[in-house]
Amino acid sequence: MAILRKNGVIGVCVHHSVYKPAHNIEELKAQAKLFDGWHKSKSWANEIKTNGEFGYQYIEYHYLMALDGSILQVQDEKYVLYHAGDNFRGDLSFNLHGIAICLTGNYENDVPTEAQMKSLVLFIRDVEKRYGIDALVRGHKETSKDPTACPGKNIGTSKSGWLSQVIKNVNDKNYPPTVIPPTTPPSAPNCDEYIKQANILKEENKGLTEALGSFQRTLESKEAELKTVNDRVKFLEDTLLQREKELKSLDEDYTRVLDERMRFEKQYMETVTELNELKKQEKDNLLNKLVHFLHNLLGGK
After folding, report:
1. What SS3 string covers 112-166?
2. Which residue from 123, 134, 157 is spatially nearest to 15, judged by alpha carbons?
3. Full residue range of the structural domain in which residue 185 is found
4. Is residue 278 part of a domain?
5. How far apart (Å, rounded) are the C-alpha atoms in residues 70 and 85?
6. Which of 28-32, 231-235, 238-242, 287-291 is the least confident region?
């Protein structure tokens, strides 16, 4: 589960979604469901998901913004979210101590609107007021340890481009002007094209679902085979262990028998030596008796 923020807030980190821009709050809500699904598919999703107070447990931003300046809160600000790639910065980490806002669209190509400018300025001022801070404002590329183009060249950084102007406007008490310069309204989306793309995606999803089912069945079969192999390996390992114990016992018996044999051989040699000595003594005695007998026979001469 997501952890709760500690030690307050240092500022706002700005991102872009890379996906097509949402034009208004309704499209923003639709995209939020997509983003939540995409983030849910990540391997780490369940480890850092939130309680979903705003209906989204997996989005790693606190807010989303549409082209007309509409802002949708998708996560409670109390949560630490992993959007900036900068845990290593400690107290200056926007992951640990920042508010993440994502402007929908790909601002490598798209151009942020004046409505977004005003909305972001007012949003940053609100963060400053609520937390009593002079907010740091940075683009994702300025915080991340790993290289990234986010939030796109047309948003820029805190030092140059559109984002630097946002920061200037935050500090300009005369901004926004009484009359906001008119902007060209975004063109209405081509619904027919979206429907066509949706149907294509449905067909692709159907094929992927069938392929996934086949893959799962194959995986289950392989898992059963692997279990059989593992059981066989376990049996052989147990048998080998038993044979090793038996071999060790035989080695001990062999050593004991060998020691007995050496002891018996030593006793045999000692016995043979004693027997030879006895034979020699008996022979000498017999010879002496014979000499004595002859001596007596010859009259003791």
Report:
1. CCHHHHHHHHHHHHHHHHHHCCCCEEEEHHHHCCCCCCCCCCCCCCCCCCHHHHH
2. 157
3. 11-189
4. no
5. 26
6. 287-291
In a domain, 230, yes or no: no
**Side chain identity, residue 102:** C
Give the separation between CA 212 and CA 145, rounded to whole angstroms. Answer: 36
- Report residue 30 as tokens: 């639709």
Q: Which of 82, 136, 75, 72 minimizes the C-alpha distance to 104? A: 72
Q: How confident is the model at residue 206 (pLDDT cuts 50, 70, 90)?
A: confident
Rounded to an integer, what distance in angstroms lies between the CA atom of residue 77 and that of residue 238? 57
Give how many domains the chain has, as a whole number. Answer: 1
Q: Any idea what the CATH number is for the domain that residue 170 is in?
A: 3.40.80.10
In this structure, the number of other CB atoms found within 10 A of the CB of residue 128 comes to 16
Is the pLDDT score of 171 beyond 60?
yes
Q: What angle do CA 274, 277, 278 make, to 5 degrees?
A: 85
And the tokens for 182?
Answer: 């008119």
Quick one: pLDDT band at residue 184, thresholds 50, 70, 90?
very low
* Domain-embedded: residue 148: yes
Instruction: Report yes or no on 289 lying in a domain.
Output: no
Structure tokens, 166: 């946002």
Nearest CA to 157 out of 169, 135, 140 is that of 140
Q: How confident is the model at residue 233 (pLDDT cuts 50, 70, 90)?
A: confident
- Under DSSP, the state recorded for 159 is S
